[in-house]
Design brief:
With about 500 residues, the protein is mainly alpha-helical. Helix content is about 65%, strand content about 0%.
Length: about 500
């Protein structure tokens, strides 16, 4: 049994202990707050100001609740850095809100105008009318706006900068939010978004710092939304694994992906996690684990777009472990497999069939395992009947027959190549025309070789009759010029 399976029980127990620690830490925080409230005579835990503290109508209160809720803010990811817009820093938020709170209590109807303005800015951003959005959001950040409106406007301003691919300004806006409201329940999500933006900017070390901060901060926040924080911590773990994978640190990526896969969390995309785990083990040449995880993947997700690539990794790992028969079976299974994904994504499927067969067959050929190589080459020839693909495969089949001392079968294959010469137009690549010329040369060589052997045998018989011992040079003393052990010439898929 592999290490991947042996540690499952221990890691699950460890994961449960960690989440129990998080739960009791948060519970202790609430207990402390409740005790302080009782001592002060309030009989209720202290809490941050919410929209219910303002004297507004129930309908407007519902709108504000939706705006200022602690649900994750939908932020569209950017794809590039706009250095010019980075110079324009967002306005700093004033920390004094007491006067504005009293003003809004005195004029509750004015909250409708602010809410409508915020929703309008959000709508314009979603339809990518960026020119009119920023002035509206900046106006909402004024001193006369309540904190709830300022928070939502600042987050919208960060989303706007990200939509405009201004990643440095996005980071600056998030930094202002963290500095202004360090105890806001949305801090974890903002840290996560900062890490994602840093990764887009290519600053992977800073990204990892933010992702780790999400997990450590989850232990200190005092909030009853444990499921929400668990979700964010899980997202941070996925981001850490993906970041290591992008950096080519496959050993670290494999460790994190294996932890994610062992978690009993329905939100985790087990299919993608296991796929990345297979790729990580394959890139670290950890062939035993690569075989185990690839077999696990194919037993559950054999009809996915990634399945042929996983089977390629499995065949390669088995070949590296010296398990040639199993490797051959995986290649033949891939070449002969007909699945829903093969019909819906024929180009992708054909690519991995050709690449897998090409690689493993060539390895068998170089190692002198010609029967196994012939099995794969014969299956490869059926994948595509175009001369661009089939002629090079046929040529390799002919070379394999020669190594197996079957000159007649080799000649038949070479003649098939020559007979299709008229299918090559003037735009055919020179390499393809060269294959036809080489096939013609091979036919001539086999004919010469056969005649030479007949003459050699006749001379040998004559010498035996007359009693003369003559050392005939034989074929071995006339090696084929430059093609005694040719490298496989299959085209790259």
């Amino acid at each position: 049994m592999s290490r991947f399976r042996k540690t499952t029980f221990v890691r699950r127990i460890t994961r449960k202990l960690v989440w129990n620690l998080i739960f009791w830490t948060i519970a202790y925080g609430y207990y402390s707050a409740y005790a302080q409230a009782n001592i002060a005579g309030t009989n209720s835990p202290t809490k941050a100001i919410t929209d219910t503290d303002f004297d507004i109508s129930p309908s407007i209160s519902a709108i504000i609740s939706a705006i200022t809720s602690n649900q994750p803010t939908s932020l569209a990811p950017g794809s590039a850095i706009n250095s010019q817009s980075a110079a324009a820093a967002p306005p700093t938020v004033n920390s004094t809100n007491n006067q504005s709170t009293n003003a809004w209590r005195a004029e509750p109807g004015a909250m409708d105008a602010l809410v409508q303005k915020l929703e309008t800015a959000r709508y314009l951003r979603k339809i990518r009318q960026f020119k009119d959005v920023k002035p509206m959001l900046v106006a909402l950040l004024g001193n006369d706006s309540p904190a709830a409106i300022q928070k939502s406007a600042l987050l919208e301003l960060a989303a706007l900068a990200q939509d405009e691919d201004d990643l440095p300004q996005t980071q600056e806006v998030y930094a202002q939010f963290l500095n202004r409201w360090p105890d806001d329940p949305r801090i974890l999500e903002i840290l996560l978004r900062q890490g994602q933006v840093f990764r887009q900017m290519g600053l992977h070390n800073l990204a990892l710092t933010k992702f780790y901060a999400v997990m450590t901060s989850a232990l200190t926040l005092k909030n009853d939304r444990l499921d929400y924080y668990q979700h964010l911590v899980m997202e941070a773990q996925v981001e850490i694994a993906e970041t290591h994978y992008e950096l080519g640190k496959y050993a670290e990526a494999a460790e994190y992906f294996s932890r994610l896969f062992e978690q009993d969390n329905p939100e985790i995309d087990k299919h993608q996690v296991l796929y990345k785990l297979v790729r990580s083990y394959s890139n670290t040449t950890n062939n035993d684990e690569a075989v185990a995880t690839a077999q696990d993947y194919l037993s559950h997700y054999s009809d996915t777009p990634e399945a042929p690539e996983v089977r390629f990794d499995l065949a390669s790992a088995l070949k590296e472990l010296g398990r040639d028969n199993e490797s051959l079976q995986q290649v033949l299974t891939l070449l002969r497999e007909q699945s829903t994904q093969a019909r819906s994504h024929p180009e992708d499927w054909a690519y991995w069939q050709q690449r897998t067969g090409n690689l493993i067959a060539n390895q068998f050929f170089r190692e002198g395992d010609y029967p196994r190589a012939l099995d794969i080459y014969s299956s490869l020839a059926q994948l595509d009947h175009s001369p661009q693909w089939q002629l090079p495969v046929w040529y390799q089949i002919g070379m394999t027959y020669e190594r197996l001392w079957q000159p007649q079968k080799a000649t038949d294959i070479y003649n098939q190549i020559i007979n299709r010469e008229n299918e090559l137009d003037t735009n055919a690549p020179p390499s393809l025309k060269s294959i036809v010329d080489m096939a013609r040369w091979r036919v001539g060589f086999i004919r010469w070789q056969s005649n030479a052997e007949i003459a050699n045998y006749a001379l040998h018989d004559t010498n035996e009759i007359v009693g003369v011992s003559v050392s005939s040079p034989g074929i071995a003393e006339h090696p084929e010029p430059g093609i005694r052990n040719p490298a496989p010439i299959l085209p790259k898929p």
